[in-house]
Specification:
Elements (H helix, E strand, L loop, with lengths): L2 H19 L29 H11 L4 H13 L3 H5 L2 H8 L14 H16 L3 H5 L1 H13 L7 H19 L3 H5 L2 H7 L7 E5 L9 H5 L20 H5 L5 E5 L27
Antiparallel strand pairs: 1-2
Helix pairs in contact: 2-6, 6-11, 8-9
Length: 279
């Protein structure tokens, strides 16, 4: 598949994600469908449930989140973080503002797990949806629309939402996929399934020259030929389109299949040797 065709397919999938998230324009009310991404359920047009918002509410109510865990696990085992790259509306916004592919601060990627843990602890400790009060997606999809409708007021909660949204938007402009890399708790959840999911990248090692073109194309600052299906990989396929040798492909494969697991970093110019070509 050519780079242009792959990108158009992904844009169409992202448009579908936006449509599903905002399906309330049809007049359909709220449903119990858990959205596979970060999308504020307080949005006036939302018909799906935000997984992070639901998680907090279940913790507050002392309910075991079996339905939530089951849904997230099902999503994760199918696409993993592919939902981040192909479906999530806030991920799409990250793409639209990715004017530069910064390579720094990769060591900060574990921060998203701290955000997820902090979200859980705060919900338990304060019996409130604390993350929702700071969530930039909530600021964009709920606070701003309600302010425009005259429902929300220019008060402290609104200004806090605008502050976090503004800071994240600046981060997105300065660092490609800033929110997805460092802060998204949904990305942290899906990353747990990234190497187990059916959807992912596969490396044909015999075709890989180790040129690093795929790394320069990666919006997450990864080296796909060395970090295949890494927990930070959003499986967007940009590396696949950039590889003129056709060493990378994306699609549905069995987890653990040769070509889907990382290879050891070798010396400069050396080729990976653990993954046979053209499997």
């Amino acid at each position: 598949m050519t780079a242009g065709k792959l990108r158009r397919l992904r844009r169409g999938s992202q448009g579908l994600g936006l449509l599903l998230g905002l399906f309330g324009f049809t007049g359909i009310g709220m449903t119990h469908l858990i959205f596979p991404g970060l999308h504020c359920y307080a949005c006036p047009l939302a018909v799906t449930v935000c997984p992070i918002g639901l998680l907090q509410n279940l913790i507050i109510n002392g309910t075991v989140p079996l339905y939530l865990f089951g849904a997230v696990a099902a999503y994760g085992l199918v696409l993993g973080r592919g939902f981040c790259g192909w479906f999530c509306p806030f991920g799409t916004l990250n793409d639209l503002l990715s004017f530069r592919k910064a390579r720094f601060f990769n060591a900060l990627s574990p921060l998203k797990f701290m955000v997820l843990l902090g979200t859980v602890v705060a919900a338990w400790r304060f019996a409130d949806t604390m993350f929702c009060k700071l969530c930039p997606a909530g600021g964009l999809e709920a606070s701003l629309p309600y302010f425009g409708l005259g429902v929300a007021k220019l008060n402290t909660p609104f200004l806090v939402h605008m502050g976090t949204l503004g800071a994240v938007l600046v981060g997105m402009v300065l660092v490609s996929r800033f929110w997805c890399r460092y802060l998204c708790p949904m990305g942290a959840l899906f990353s747990l399934f990234n190497r187990l999911s059916l959807f992912g990248l596969r490396l044909k090692a015999g075709k890989c020259a180790g040129c690093g073109v795929c790394a320069r194309a990666c919006p997450m600052g990864l080296k796909p030929h060395r970090q295949i299906n890494n927990t930070d990989c959003i499986k967007c396929g940009e590396c696949v389109g950039a590889c003129a040798a056709g060493a990378l492909e994306i699609g549905f494969f069995l987890p653990g299949k040769e070509g889907r697991v990382p290879v050891r970093a070798l010396g400069v110019g050396a080729r990976p040797h653990r993954v046979p070509a053209d499997q």
